[in-house]
Amino acid sequence: MEHTDLLIDWSRAQFALTALYHWLFVPLTLGLTFIIAIMETIYVRTGDIWWKKTTQFWMTLLAINFAIGLATGIIMEFEFGTNWSNYSWIVGDIFGAPLAIEGLMAFFMESTFFAVMFFGWDKVSKKMHLLSTWLVAIGSNLSALWILIANGWMQHPVGMHFNPDTARNEMENFTEVIFNPNAVSKFLHTVSSGYVLASLFVIGISAWYLLKKRDIMFAKRSMIVAASFGLITSLFLLNSGDESAFQVAQQQPMKLAAMEGLYQGESRAGIIAIGLLNNEKTLGDDKDVFDFKLEIPNALSFLGYHSLSAFVPGIEDMLYGNEEQHIMSVKDKIILGKKAVSALKDYKEAKREGNQEKAQQALKTFEKNQSYMGYGYLKKPEDAVPNVALSFYSFHTMVGLGTWFLILFIIVLYFAMINEIEHKKWVLFAALFSIPLGYVAQEAGWIVAEAGRQPWAIQDLLPVGMAVSNVASTSVMITFWLFAILFTGLLIAEIKIMLKQIKIGPEGEH
Amino acid sequence: MLDSISLLTLQTYWWLIVSLLGALFVFMTFVQGGQTLLYTLGKTDDERTLIINSLGRKWELTFSTLVMFGGALFAAFPLFYAVSFGGAYYVWMAILFCFIIQAVSYEYRKKPDNVFGDKFYEKLLFINGSLGVFLLGVALATLYTGGNFVVNEMHLSHWTKASYGLEALLNPFNVSFGVMLVFLSRIQASLYFYNNLDNEAIAKRIKETLKNNTLIFLPFFLFVFGFILFQQGYSYNPETQMVFIEPMKFLHTLLDYPLLLIILLLGIGTLLYGIYSAFYKHNHKAIWFSGTGTVLVVTVLLFILGFNHTAYYPSLVDLQSSLTIENSSGSHYTLSVMSIVSLLVPVVLGYIFLVWRSMDKHKMTIEEVKSDSHHY
């Protein structure tokens, strides 16, 4: 089934829009719930009413964020059906299960105990309340676990086989799907990024109070909890980031090459620490890739393959092939993929006609070329290359900011521990301005993960053009703009409400 | 996995789970019904605050049930997910918009600096409660009346009308089904408030509201029920899988499986008794009768759609494209995995029950709401 490029673009735009909006709110929930749970634990252990007030203040901000996170989340699940209906059939047998389990295991836990957390202070015992707060934190992170198992499977499909009779992929090993190494590293990296963002959020707001010389005790206490949490989780983030990059190198080498702007592969490949891409560079020409670059030698080989001398394939090696490194060109893969697509059609036709011999012959041809079937849907080899500039800059923005956050946590924790933090204005300003940077890093991370794997909805298996729903592009365009207006309106309201609550503060308006 | 259980048994089991989830969701729409009664039952600001806070502690559960219903459909019957969501595009998108706007409205309505004002968020809640439930009813009704789709041999589908599902609004049965659900949700909401709120003024108004909404609900219910019993159904031959039209299919199913008929009648009786006992006997626990009745009735009405070799989503354009639980389901392996996971359902229902029992021990008063550290 052919789809127009316009339909694919609008469908991708709508999914990107809803995912990016959703991701503005989820990471804060993932981390803030844990920070609040830690604060409430201190309250229950010490009986210090200050900690209860502190807990309740951060809970108010959590509730404002949580509501809009839910609002933007519901659309994501249903968009797989509305905008990616072919996808829903072709891989729904595997992809649907984690989504359903997410609903059963996580959403009910979150929604049930959320009510106790917010309205149960005087209705249940202290310990039951604390348990509920922890269960909300665990529930929201469980939700992330299942959706990232699903996402990890899209990046690295495992545990399934293609059934030619139903013309879809079917699950054959659930354990493989759950323990998919890509999913595991993606989950750890994503949730720890949420913890870091929440730490930045708490530190930044606390810094604002200190700059305003109000709610000093509250701000300092919050800062110590958040900076400790942020520092530990930053180290974890760094570690899981390294593992994620290793997984990408093994499973999505084209994405890795785009992330690093590596057009021609090399042994002992370096990582670009800072770089400015040459806008005039196109695929296959001899122009320089960078106008300017600062490179760490051998680092990419080590990061991707854990060996300083390993060969890292470049975009053009994979696009045009590299005999020396035994890399097949995309063009050849497309030829084999088209053979698989056509053999599947022949198989279906023969089955319909009741011609068993022809069916078996077609099936043999199909099975021989099956692993390239996804490429059979690409129009031209260049379609297999993601947007290099988008992947490169997003990746480097994410890594650069992540490094900065780690430094910030160390500085804040140090000055908070020696009780000097309120006198260090430059640290407080840096902390305050790092809140928006946290969001930039979050969004950049998602852009790397999702734009970097284009054109694939499922890596090497199903391109977005084949996955899309067969609806009119104008219909998707209309809903895109409706979402854009609605979500932007809600975001403005959310920010204004949040700012007002911060101004009011834990002790009421000053 | 679960190799000894046949694929058809697993498909039937999952169709039952989906039907049950759909029924639980219909019951939980008392939250939506309550949102539409905000100004009918709440005449002062305090009364409206009480109503919103009472609903505000339940709305997420309804929301989660809807998401779970969608997730279960995706996992168990992915072809339905693909055909209906990707085809009746405008209807599902409109439903989603109605639910997106609900989530923020509770939290933002009374917050200072909320940009659009209290009334704006109350309107959003009204839209969610009325249009949202109505459109969901219309979408569910198309399972009886069919959709304009074609599924090819690769199981890829497309919708044949450019109105992408909105044409369902021209069918009187679909519209009646939607209206019926709206008024059912308002009845349930009245009974829920009767049970949950300690406020005499509201309790008095509930009686009137209950009467009015029941009087509108009943004729729509009778029409829908009669239509389902006596309309044609879409059967399929289990050997050849060929779909054909069968007059009074659903009545036949109920007569062939009397247990279903008994549960259905029991459900209707319990639902009506709930309304009666609140109105005439001042029974504050009537919601449990009407709720149980609703779950029983809706479960059976959804279950018979796909049970007994029935095409649960008929195609109006190409009969053989119609969806059955056999041609649209996940694989044996996936349904087995999901069946094992479904053993968690009683655990989830158990903790929901325990938590709400401890949270709803006493009826809610405006004083209590105001003294809470967090309220809507």
Short recap of the structure:
The complex is a heterodimer of chains A (510) and B (376). With 510 residues, chain A is mainly α. In chain A, 72% of the residues lie in helices and 6% in strands.
Notable characteristics:
heterodimer, A: 510 residues, two-stranded antiparallel ribbon, B: mainly alpha, 6 strands, globular
Walk me through what this model shows.
Chain A has 510 residues and is mainly α. Chain A has a domain at 5-196 and 381-388 and 445-499. In chain A, 72% of the residues lie in helices and 6% in strands. Chain A contains 16 helices and eight strands. A two-stranded antiparallel ribbon of chain A has the order 1-2. In chain A, a hairpin with a 4-residue loop joins β1 (160-163) and β2. In chain A, α1 packs parallel to α16 (473-504), α3 packs antiparallel against α4 (126-155) and α4 packs across α6 (181-211). The longest helix of chain A has 42 residues, at 5-46. Chain A is globular. The mean pLDDT of chain A is 93. Chain B is mainly alpha-helical and 376 residues long. Chain B has one domain (7-371). Helix content of chain B is 69%, strand content 5%. Chain B contains 16 helices and six strands. Chain B has helices spanning 7-28, 30-36, 38-41, 45-56, 59-76, 78-87, 89-108, 118-145, 172-196, 200-230, 249-256, 258-281, 286-306, 332-341, 345-359, 366-371, and strands spanning 149-151, 157-159, 233-236, 243-246, 311-313, 323-324. In chain B, a hairpin with a 5-residue loop joins β1 and β2 (157-159). In chain B, α1 packs antiparallel against α5, α1 crosses α14 and α2 (30-36) packs across α8. Chain B starts with 6 loop residues before the first helix and ends in a 5-residue tail after the last helix. Classes of the chains: A mainly alpha (510), B mainly alpha (376). Chains A and B meet through α2, α3, β2, α11 and α16 of A and α5, α6, α7, β2 and α14 of B.
